[in-house]
Every structure is written in C-alpha cells, then in structure tokens.
Amino acid sequence: MSELSAQFSKLARRQFLGSMALTGVGAAVACEEAFCGAGVDLPPLVDVNVNLFQWPYRRVSGDQTPILVETLRRHGVRQAWVGSFEALLHRDLGAVNRRLFEECQRFPGGLLVPFGTVNPKLPDWQEELRRIEEQYRMPGVRLFPDHHSYTLDDPDFVELLRLAASRKLIVQIVLMSEDERTVHPIVNVPQIDPKPLLAVVSKLPELRLVLLNPFRVASVSLLAELASAGNVYVDIAGLEGVGGLENLVKVFPAGRVLFGSYFPVFYFESAKLKLIESVLGAEISAGICAGNADRLLGKS
Amino acid sequence: MLFHTPYEIWDAHTHLSGVPGKTPEERLGNLLRYADRLGISRLCVFMGVRWSYEPTPEDFRQQNDDVLRAIAAYPDRAFGFVYLNPKQLDASLEELQRCVAQGPMVGIKLWVAEHCNAPSLDPIVRRAVSLNAVILQHTYLKKTGNLPFESTPMELAELAARHPDATFICAHSGGQWELGIRAIRKTPNVLIDLCGFDPTNGVTEMAVRELGPERIVFGSDAGGRSFASQLAKVLGAQISEDAKRLILAGNLKRVLQPILKAKGIACE
Ligand SMILES: [Zn+2]
Q1: In this predicted structure, what is the pLDDT of residue A12?
Q2: Most buried of A92, A95, A187, A231, CB within 10 angstroms?
Q3: What is the ipTM of this complex?
Q4: Half-sphere exposure at residue A21, Cβ-oriented, CA atoms within 13 angstroms
Q5: Which residues of A touch B233 (CB under 8 A)?
Q6: Taking the model in full, what pTM does it have?
Q7: CA distances from A258 to A44, A238, A291 (A)
Q8: How is B99-116 classified by DSSP, letter by letter?
C-alpha cells in the first residue's frame, strides 16, 4: 500500500468508524475491507480495460505484470480483463496471444482474464479465433482497429464479428488507443469511425460488443443508438467532462456501462475517482463497478 | 461515496463552459459541487459562457463579466483570471486595468488569439509584472495541426526568457508533455499545469524529475474535463508526499501570494 493510500485509508476509516460509533454499529471487519483501496469505499471492481506488457511509446509503472497485479489488488480490483500491448505492432499474433495466456496463468486467483487479439487483415486470422476459444478458452477478443488499419465497415472485420458471435466470444474494440493529437510522429494511426457499427450490430443480435475508449470518436447519442440496436457496452476510462458518469447514464443505459481504467497507460486513479465525482446511487454504482461485467461474462 | 483527502487542493484551471447553469454563478456553483466531492477547495476560473478564438473587445469584456459575476457569488472559493486578446492590445490593457488593477481578478488567461512570442504580448506582460499577476498561457503541440495562432511551449519559453521577472503557467504542458516539459525546462519562471490531456501515466513523474516539484501546478480544465481524471495525475503519481502537496496547492499559493496579499485576500 502506498503512503498515499495508507493516509487515505487511515483518514477515511477514522471518519467512517466515527460515524459507525455514532449509529452504534461496529462493523470493523467490513470497514477494513471497504477501505482496502485508496480511501474510497467502493465494492471490489471488475476492470475490463487493462493491457499487459509494454505500451510501445513509453515505459510506465505497471508495464511489468507483478507491479500491475500489485496495483490492481491495492485498488480493490478482483478481476481484470487484459489484452496485450504487444498486439499493437507485433504481427505474430499467435505468439502474442500465447504469451498473454501464459502470463495470466502465472498469477493465481483468476485476477487476470486474457482477451487475445485477432487482426482480420492477416492471412488465416480465423485460426487465431479458433485458438482463442478452443485452445486457451478465453472469454473474448480485443481488437485494435487503429493500429491494424481497418475500418469498421471492412468485410473481414464484419466477418470476424459474425464468427466471434457464433463462438460466443465477447468482442472488445479499442476505439482509440491514444488521443490523435499526441500520437508518435512516425505512427500513422487513423481515427476510427464507429458509425458503421450501427448496421452491423443490428444484424448480429447474439453479439456481445464492448467499446473501449469510445468517447473521443463516438458521441454519446451514437453510443446510445448502438446500445438500443444491439448488445453494446462501453467502458469509462476515456470518459471526460465534469460529472461525466452522471451525464452518461442520463442518456446511455447504466446497465451497459463497465468500469475500465486503461491501466497502465492511464493512471488507475482516474477511473476510480470518476465514481466519486458522480453520485449514481448504490444500484447503478454496483453495476458499473462489477455487476454489469459479471453479467456480461456470465453469459459466456 | 466516502472520499477524504489529506491534501489541500487548489485548481489552477477551470471554465464556466461544459457545466450546466442558467447564469455564470449557477455554473460556478455546479462546478464547486463536483469539486467538493473530490476535496478541491479553490478554483481559478476564466473565460465566459460563450468562447471565441479571437475575441473582440466586446467579446472578452462579456466573458470577463461572466467570470466577475460568478466569482462574486463565491469569493472564498474562486479566483478570476482576466481573458485578453493581444491582437486587441489597447483594449486588453484597459481590460487588465478594469479586472485586475481595479477589480478582484488575480491573473491573466491567454488562449489561441495570438502566438505568445509575438511582440504585442510584451506590454501585457510588463503590466502583469507591475500588478503581480500570473499569466496562464494555453499551449498545445498537436500532431493533427495547431489552430492558426495557437501557441506552443517553445513560443512560451521565448516570451518567458524576455521577461524573467514575470511568472507564467504553461497550460496543458503542451499536450505532448514529453516535448512540452523539455521546452520550458530552461526558463525557471515558467510552471506547467497538468490539465487538458488524458491521464497518461508518467507525466507527473517526468515533470518532477525534469523541472522539480516547485514548477508544477494541478489544474483540471473542468467542465470540459473531469476533475477525477486530472486529479489522478497527481494522486496516482509515484512522487513524494511533499511534491504532491506542492503540486496540489503549494505552488499556486506561492505564485498567487503577492497579488492576494496586495488585494488583502486571505487564503489560509
Ligand atoms: Zn482550458
């Protein structure tokens, strides 16, 4: 536990225990649990937007798995859906997915749930999908269309969604890996247009689609349209604006909002503090923290 | 939700846009409601309800009136910075007189009306120095292309080198902070604010390493940005507790101290 977390916890616990004493309730054990993170009394989290290994453009704290795991645990994450940053540039995705699978296995307790990557522009990409489901038993795939240079109306991509749905795999699409204004000068990463998804998801009712970092490229009204057209979820890592979550759930179904941190590229605290900045009510909050993701995964 | 921070937190960079409210004071009230949840006690606020890239004197007077109205409703929570356009030099100097010399504002905000290394900035900076007013200059380095008169951290370093007695804040760390931090490294009278870009892991650690903790201020760019995502850059950084205290409030207090004192504004 960092010095900061320790301080947060101490203060919060003192305050909390104080209020408990006043009401005559003495639930010290529950309190210890509640404040296991950074001074925030959130339930255990399911983080659907984490990646292992090195972000190609910068070393960050958390790009080594033991540190990543320690950070997630310290913040009260009980399950993290992890992709691999190696998938951004490596073309031997067979090896990338194998390393991802093995790395997740090294950390017991089911904390890290691997989501392998498929690039539908590579020859025989269907074999990747087969291994992900049959060999590794992963619950889903994570796609990086910006780094793999395809649009969301590409027939190969649409075919991938169809096959993934028929294999009952969750599909996560990273709609933005980095703000287009700050990407490395030699990297030509196109901004992804999410509009073609509307036509696709309405034709695939069995598809479970999670849009990661969608907010810079998709308006909330488009996301709401997508959610009513199909089984579409979003994560909150890229959500901005003051009271962002409060505003989001006014127009987008709260049951389709998932906790995602985009750690370790983003500071983990960002997503967590959004749950404090917005007042959501216990039910919605519990859904975002874990319940919605549990339900989504449970359907696997 | 319970959230308690052991830190005092002042926000160097907020706006009246991107937050609901029929009047400027209602907007600031709403902003403060969210700030309260994260333990942010003071906000620097600038620019009005409706923005323009190259404001006419009427435009910026209107926007500053919005801010004056808003901060009058929360004198113990908010500081105003006057929004100026160096291309409208005479009117800007008059506005500086109205809002800072004779009014309650304590700093200057410059956005994208003019490159900040232009000579028209010099009289504004000289007047700011005589008033002890801090100058917060928007800077960005966009791969996708800057606006025609949008400033870079390199341009701000030029201006700051011409005015070693002035205090500048390089807003947004230039967006591409790995470049922005380097660009202002050799001009000690420039601080950076950490707002207005994604909560990218490592920014605050690099800034502390290259500039020292005394040259960094927390800002959010709320309402366009979330207080949470921007505060995470400091709370989540692997830096010392002392560095956090400086960045979250200490440095901003230090640079505002002379003008607050001159205006008799208590801030403890
Ligand atoms: Zn701003």
Answers
A1: 41
A2: A231
A3: 0.96
A4: 6
A5: 267, 270
A6: 0.92
A7: 13, 12, 9
A8: IIISSS--EEEE-SSS-T
